[in-house]
Design brief:
The complex is a heterodimer of chains A (113) and B (108). With 113 residues, chain A is mainly beta. Helices cover 0% and strands 51% of the residues of chain A. In chain A, a hairpin with an 8-residue loop joins strand 9 and strand 10. In chain B, the strands form two sheets. Chain B has a five-stranded antiparallel beta sheet, with no helix packed on it. In chain B, strands 2-10-9-4-5 form a five-stranded mixed beta sheet, with no helix packed on it. The chains are: A mainly beta (113), B mainly beta (108).
Chain lengths: 113, 108
């Protein structure tokens, strides 16, 4: 089945540890996105990539890093520099920037203890 | 960055009633999209309306767009308990940004 897969669904980490969230899509989409969702805050854009080997910062990129080595994959690393990393992280993909709809994964819930 | 603001923040209705949610935004857009999110899940695309369109229908959904007022509305007719979810509008300029959503509760 075509779709977008995030893993893991739940993740617990200690403070000061880096953690990488996986996002894979088999929809042949050029664009991929990472959003963060906090209660009462809606979704905020962390990073996005419109093409392989290129990505741009979103509104809240500090403390996060990404890579786009393959079209299918857009992993997000939450570094120890992120002051408040506990959140629900959503990955999405779309056919092209500036136009159509996004397809979302089921999310990864990160809890930092 | 461009972001939609949904109103009301929460809406509680009975099955069979209609639900109307509103969205306002601030700058020019290419299109505006509505998404739905069940608790703890990813977002699901509902409908897209282009900046040159005024109204669009999809099943029980009706979306309007008024670019002069920079506003949109989503109407769900004959609501069902399964419509209980959060609904987000997403104005599309260079990227797609989301507001805080409207939490809809439909009681049997």
């Amino acid at each position: 089945d075509g779709g977008i897969t995030q893993s893991p669904k739940y993740l617990f980490r200690k403070e000061g540890q880096n953690v990488t969230l996986s996002c894979e899509q088999n929809l042949n989409h050029d664009a991929m996105y990472w959003y963060r969702q906090d209660p009462g805050q809606g979704l905020r854009l962390i990073y996005y990539s419109q093409i392989v080997n290129d990505f741009q910062k979103g509104d809240i990129a500090e403390g996060y890093s990404v890579s786009r080595e393959k079209k299918e994959s857009f992993p997000l690393t939450v570094t120890s520099a992120q002051k408040n990393p506990t959140a629900f992280y959503l990955c999405a993909s779309g056919e092209a920037a500036n136009t159509g709809e996004l397809f979302f994964g089921e999310g990864s819930r990160l809890t930092v203890l | 960055s461009q972001q939609g603001e949904e109103d009301p923040q929460a809406l509680s209705i009975q099955e069979g009633e209609n639900a109307t949610m509103n969205c306002s935004y601030k700058t020019s857009i290419n299109n505006l999209q509505w998404y739905r999110q069940n608790s703890g899940r990813g977002l699901v695309h509902l409908i897209l309306i282009r900046s040159n369109e005024r109204e669009k229908h999809s099943g029980r959904l009706r979306v309007t767009l008024d670019t002069s007022k920079k506003s949109s509305s989503l109407l769900i007719t004959a609501s069902r308990a399964a419509d209980t979810a959060s609904y987000f509008c997403a104005p599309r300029a260079s990227t797609l940004t989301f507001g805080k959503g409207t939490m809809l509760l439909v009681s049997p």
